Amino acid sequence: MSFHESPVTFVSKIEILVMDIERCRSFYRDILGLKLLMGTESKAVFSADGEAPLLTIEKAGEVVEKKAGSAGLYHMALLLPERADLARFLRHMLKRNYPLQGASDHYVSEAIYLADPEGNGIEVYIDRPADIWQRDEGEVHMTTEPLDANDLLSDGNDKDWEGMPAGTVMGHIHLQVLELKETERFYCKGLGFNLVNRYGSQAIFVSSGGYHHHIGLNTWQSRGGEPAEKKSPGLKYFTLVLPNEAKRDNTLQRLKEMGTSIEETTGGIFVQDPSGNRIKLATA
After folding, report:
1. pLDDT (tens digit, 9 = 90+) per residue, 151-183?
2. Which residue range forms the structural domain that includes residue 89?
3. Which sign does the torsion angle of CA 240, 246, 250, 255 carry?
4. Which helix (H) or strand (E) holds 253?
């Protein structure tokens, strides 16, 4: 089963605001290895396969400084097709001498962490087979252990890194939120996700279709903070793809009954979580 296509609800793409569009464009194309689908002086759209957008960066107009401890993007997570792809990516980053922020074994996955030139967090990862994940009463067991980089690098020696492979998808998004109680209610009761892991007392993970997580939510740096300013650099919105229009209509009805504001524009239907993170609701 694919965890990133209908009938699963999943994150398909992310849009962020940046201050230096040229510097960020160069990073995502030349270092991260995404393909530039469309570019103007103020916007760049990136893809892995040359067709489906994964990430849009847009130049912030009237820049409002992002406040420390505010809600927003913790990291976006690009899921590669094969372990050999992650090995080639790690080898590529080491050759480029690009600073990494971490490398972890989460039991369900192996992950490398870094940030773009403006501090937007990025995870590049691969999943282990879902049939070996440990589940307990609906929760998926996840850990954070050091990645065995030597073992990983022994894979993928057959060819060099040639950019993000065509099968790369936006595996999940991890958000900074201001609290967890109403956040859990919004994502589970409202959007229809299942809670699949409580990671200590300050983070939860939710998913659809039994995935280890499509969305991570934490208060590690943002508890009691403020929503991000709409014009400040960072997350503008992310797109959730629901299986069909009936599923979306039912979701919108639940959100309305919960008192959530629904914004219908020519660009789509948008909602905000309790911390002000903006979400576009699309259909497969």
Report:
1. 999 986 778 899 999 999 999 999 999 999 999
2. 10-283
3. positive
4. helix 245-257
